[in-house]
Design brief:
Elements lengths: L4 E5 L3 H13 L3 E5 L5 H8 L3 E5 L7 H9 L9 E5 L4 H8 L3 E4 L4 H12 L1
Parallel strand pairs: 1-2, 1-3, 3-4, 4-5
Length: 120
Amino acid sequence: MRNKKILICDDDRDILEMLEIILEDSGLDTFTEPDSTILVDRIEENMPDLLLMDLWMPVITGDEILKTLRSNDGIKNLPVIIMSAAQDGKLIATEAGADDYISKPFDIDVLIAKVKALIQ
């Protein structure tokens, strides 16, 4: 599972840090980006194997970013898991083109299983 890179994007730095620890402890390489405005550039520069992203972020929301990714030939097939505490988060994530969805607060085992399933 090493050498699989997971990019985590959330404007909450505590959540970023927690997710980074959880996924690294599961044998995955991670890097984080709290700023959604530069996320597409970070993806193109680093070509992660999966994007784990919050839905509600300031400036550019997760669903807007996802629509941008899906229209970009170079990165449109990047697996994306959207996270949200919103009641309609799953519907919004699915309509935007997410590969999977995790509701906050999330079960760590479910999170790890979903991430690993998409990067196999």
